[in-house]
Amino acid sequence: MTSPLLRPYDGPHLKLPNRIAMAPMTRGRADDVTGVPHPLTAEYYAQRAAAGLIVTEGIWPNILGKGGPGIPGLVTDAQVDGWRAVTDAVHAAGGTIFAQLWHVGRMTHPLNLPGGATPAAPSAVRIAEEPIYTNQGNVDHVTPRAMTTSEAEATVADFAAEARNAIRAGFDGVEVHGANGYLIQQFLAENTNRRTDRFGGSRAGRLRFALDVVEAVAAEVGPERVGLRISPDNPENEIAEEDPQGTYRALVDAVDPLGLAYLHVIERGAYAALADLRARWSGTLIGNFNGPEPTSQRAGEQVLAADLADLFSFGRLFISNPDLPARFATGAPLTPHAPALVYGGDAEGYVDYPALTARL
Questions:
Q1: Of 78, 106, 113, 176, which is least packed with CB atoms within 10 Å of its CB?
Q2: What SS3 state is found at 245?
């Protein structure tokens, strides 16, 4: 019997050879000064073009959105040109690739930002327990400054401009990163959003920034080219959501009429987000677990077999198995990745994991 992961997908806006998505994963190999992708980035993604859909590592829309060393941008012409080499290589290999638009908010440090700038966030709420990685190693977080209303509005415009640059760079679409405790989820969560302007206060206020970003990006490049990633009830990066079901039902109900390319749901907390949100979403839904261990093929198959999602995204398995769909199809053994080589560096642990055919 053919695995449901290997069946073609013919959705409203996506026509894909299989239902395996490559999840966005930070690799930290861009030029730290220019934000231009590493010269090997095109090879890295092209090696993995057999995925039905590739979503890139997060890419910043303005410099305050840069979360650490080696994180790429999509703002300057040089950055656009760098990503054009990536999309050309993926398309030549027959793949489909979306750029993830990623602003980290408070999840950065002055050591990561030009001129030692203070991170900007919805409210001045510091991460207390976990360190942040910088060029000087792990250090304590600083207290971010609260964005002004006009700065939040300007950041919405930056997301739209980044989406336009992504299409200029040849991407098939973009994914708005609203998950994992970064800027958009900081606006959504009660413990990180203590604002009293239009971007805070009530649930409608806390939803406003996310909705403004998605609507602006969709207006810029077309909703059929836009995905949204969320992680309801995910405590990562010290996020605490008091009523995730209420928040994310309202968010999904608001964005569903836009006709987006997909909704990408990370289920990690106690809230059964995939089962709860599936019936509320009329378009393509991508499932993901993002737990402490790499998600198995069987777990993805079970999600699709239960009709909880249309596609399933795998992250760490793609780091060390560039031909992951072929391995799933043949039952070939999976190569474990080397954790010490995930972030930064050059070819080692990046483009030197051999494909199955190279091992035969």
A1: 78
A2: helix
Evaluate whether 177 touches 56 at the Cβ level (below 8 Å). Answer: no
Could you tell me the CA-to-CA distances from 315 to 21, 70, 336 in Å, in that order?
9, 19, 12
pLDDT of residue 360: 36
Please name which of 304, 245, 328, 324 lies closest in space to residue 54, comparing C-alpha atoms: 324
Tell me the residue length of the chain: 360
Low-confidence ranges of the chain (pLDDT < 50): 358-360
Catalytic residues: 182
Helix axes 149-168, 77-92, angle to 10 degrees: 40
- Cα-based distances in Å from 102 to 26, 42, 115, 174, 225: 11, 20, 21, 10, 16
Residue 178: in which H helix or E strand, if any?
A: strand 173-178
The Cα 76–Cα 171 span in angstroms is: 16
User: Can you give the pLDDT at residue 359?
Assistant: 45
Instruction: Dump the DSSP string for 42-63.
Output: HHHHHHTTTSSEEEEEEEBSSG
Question: pLDDT tens across 147-196, in order?
Answer: 999 999 999 999 999 999 999 999 999 999 999 999 999 999 999 999 99
Burial class (CB in 10 A: 0-12, 13-18, 19+), 196: exposed
